[in-house]
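A further point concerns the way the authors explain their paired sequence and structure data. The central task, working out the C-alpha cells from the amino acid sequence alone, is never made concrete. I therefore recommend that a typical entry be quoted early in the introduction. An entry of this sort, consisting of the sequence and the corresponding C-alpha cells, reads as follows:
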Amino acid sequence: MSAPTAPVTEVTGSSGTFPAYRAGMILLGCYIVLLTRAGTMPDVLWTMLVVFAAAVVSGVTGFGFAPICGAALAHLLGDPRQALAITLVCAVASEAAMVWSLRRDIDWHACPDFLLGVAAGLPVGFYVLLHTCSKPVAQAMGGLLVIYAAVTMWRRPVAIECRHGIADAFAGVLGGITGGIAAFPGAPVVVWCGLKGWSKERQRGLYQPVILILQLAGLAVMAAGEFAGARHREIDWSGLLHLPAVLLGTSLGMALFGQLNDRQFGLAGKILLLVCGAILLL
C-alpha cells in the first residue's frame, strides 16, 4: 500500500521545480524594468525587493509579512501611511495565495472559535490605535514576543492539551487586538497553535485563514474610510503593481516550507517571532 501524497506537494514539488522560479525571477526583473521606465512610482526596485523578501519569509512560516514589509517600506518611502497601505494590499494577496495552497489542510470546524474572538478583539485594537497612544502597547507586545521566542528556542517543546473553545477564542481576541494596533494579527494565534504541538500543516491550516480574514477586515476598514470621504486617502492602490513579486515570493516560500520538518518549521517560526518582536520594540 503506497503512502498518501502530502497536500503541500502541489505547491512545493521536488527540487527539479526550482528552475521555474529562476525563470520567474527573470520575468520579475523585466517587469521591474518596465515599471521603472514608465515612472509609475519612485524607488520601485527597492520596494519590489522588500515585498518579494517579505513574501518569501511569510511563505515559509505563514505569518510576518506585515511587520517586516511595513517597517522596511516605512523607512524606504518615508511615509508610514503609504507603507501601511501598500503592505496591507500585498499581505492580503500573499495570504490568499497561501490559503489556496493549503486549502486541503484547513480546519474550518476549528476556525469559528478563533474568528469569534477576533471579532471581539479587532474593534478594541482599532480603538487603541485611533484614540490612545498605541506605541507603548505595541512595544509591550514586541517585548513579550521576544521573551517568548528566546525562551522557547532553548527549551524542549511543550505541548498543551487544551480542547476548550474558550482558550481558542481568547487567542483570537488577542489576535484581533494586536491586528488593530500593530497590523500583526497572527502573533497570538501562531503562538497558541505552536504550543499545542501540532504538525506544521495543521498549524498553518488553522491560523492561515484566520490571518487572511483579519487582513481583509483591516483592508475593508481602510477602504470604507476612503469611500466615506476621509480627509486623507487611506489606500494606495499602487500596491497592486507589486502582485507579481508577492505571488512569486509566496510561491517560493511555500516551496521552502515543503522542505522543512516540524522541528525546523517550529524553529523558523520562533526566529521570525523574535525578529517581529524586535521590530515592534523599535
